[in-house]
Amino acid sequence: MPIKIQNDLPARKVLEDEHIFVMTERRALTQNIRPLQILILNLMPTKIETETQILRCLSNTPLQIEIELLQMESHTAKNISEEHMITFYQTFPQVKHKWYDGLIITGAPVELMDFEEVEYWDELCEVMEWSKTHVHSTFHICWGAQAGLYYHYGIPKYILDKKLSGVYKHYLINEKSRLFRGFDSEFYAPHSRNTTVRAEDIEKIPDLKIMAASDEAGVYVVGNQSGSQFFVMGHSEYDIDTLAKEYFRDVDKGLNPEVPVNYFEDDDPKKQPTMRWRAHGTWIYSNWLNYFVYQTTPYILNEDVVTFTDED
Questions:
Q1: How far apart are alpha carbons 41 and 89 in whole angstroms?
Q2: Tens digits of per-residue pLDDT, 25-42?
Q3: CATH number of the domain at 34-294, please?
């Protein structure tokens, strides 16, 4: 939440230069406050687990948030009861007349398929096009990030020689971005994917900037200039045991997976995983909500708004 101070307090400029949210008395007197409206498009097969992980990340803020869950009408979820989907999820025709402060598009286990081969691709494209006029800021995760980059900017994905699985060290490229407020210069994040995007393709697009990366895992966070689109290649929302569940699932299937990198103690699957990314997972969602949603979204959501950048 913002620090409310007198309009001319000398500390104001110093704090603002550090990207600390300072609200002057003048602004506080005219501020209208309402709950943030966040829509989550959950494409993961583990619906309940993914719901819990993302909600946990979103909850670490004093902001009041109202959540709605969205499913693809053109796809039938196989690992969850129909009752759960009917009770808690909406379809796109039920929400497309609404406006939202934020949209989260999750990953999906379809990355080895061409985008156009995914059964709900046309519907997802409709959602992503709608988001440009009905959502203030969108946060894409893993395959959802690759799908967003492909749809909005034509950036292709590439199949890796082997699955990228583990917890990797990352560094900040755009250290002054509000998205990384509170971050250390180096931080860890989990990845679990078979495909990637390449920096050289992204760097050709003037509207995009690579904000964080890893020597081993490649491009990590990409944002557009206005702050209305973020693309995060990893899974900062993962629980401590999520990679372990995926690893042992693949072992049971006889896929002979490699042990996730930098995850189990001593890289031994018989030992417990080490949590290295909880602070990062908390901060990236909190900063997105605070700086790119709460501080810039209009009070009436269907109003035109001025674009916002990290330099503003």
A1: 9
A2: 666 555 567 888 999 999
A3: 3.40.50.880
Known catalytic membership, residue 75: no
* Whether the Cβ atoms of residue 217 and residue 200 lie closer than 8 Å to each other: no
pLDDT tier at 305 (50, 70, 90 boundaries)?
very low
Residue type, 239: D
Strand duo 158-172 + 186-196: pairing: antiparallel
Return the H-helix or E-strand segment holding 290.
none
Distance CA 69, CA 221 (A): 24
Distance CA 138, CA 106 (A): 11
Q: CA-based angle 121:123:124, to the nearest 5?
A: 65
Which two structure tokens, joined as six digits, stand for 95?
């929400």
Q: Say which of 111, 142, 191, 246 is annotated catalytic.
A: 142
Contact indicator for 293, 136 with CB cutoff of 8 Å: yes
Which residues make up each annotated binding site for substrate?
163, 192, 249
Domain layout of the chain by residue ranges: 1-31, 34-294
Active site residue 125: no
Q: What is the mean pLDDT of the chain?
A: 89
- Residue 8, both tokens: 């001319």
Can you say which residues are annotated as belonging to the binding site?
163, 192, 249
